[in-house]
């Protein structure tokens, strides 16, 4: 769960969610004094609320950070996606094949413990 949260925060999704919240708040505030269509239009006319300004500044700062190449993480990624060796564990002396290939010796076959039921004579 923690890894999922870290990957989401590392991708910058928190700023998009905060921006959606800011737009919703702006629409609801504008819709108190005007129609819904006019409130949506005023929200997206380019004027930014303080929360929208904070989100824009945070996104700009995040993009301006230098991204140093990390060669160790690339190696870890390659090791993570390599397939491991297959291990098959079976009982000694037992060979597996298609179901039709299994045949028992004649001396191992047993008769049913009770005779089959007979129909009642009328």
Order of helices and strands: HHHHH
How much helix is in the residues? 40-55%
> How many β-strand stretches?
0
What's the shape?
Answer: elongated
Would you tell me the structural class of the helices and strands? mainly alpha
Helical region count? Answer: 5
Give the strand content.
Answer: under 5%
Distance between the termini: 71 Å
Biggest sheet character: none
Poorly predicted residue ranges: none
Mean pLDDT: 74
From the alpha-carbon coordinates, what is the Rg to the nearest angstrom? 35 Å
Account of the protein in words:
The structure is a single chain. The chain has 122 residues and is mainly alpha-helical. The chain has a domain at 12-64. The protein has 5 helices and no strands. The protein has helices at 2-10, 13-31, 36-43, 50-64, 71-81. The protein is elongated, with a radius of gyration of 35 Å. The chain starts with a helix and ends in a 41-residue tail after the last helix.
Keywords:
single chain; 122 residues; mainly alpha; elongated
In short:
It contains five helices and no strands. It is mainly alpha-helical.
Task: Give me the secondary-structure topology.
Blueprint lengths: L1 H9 L2 H19 L4 H8 L6 H15 L6 H11 L41
Helix pairs in contact: 2-3, 2-4
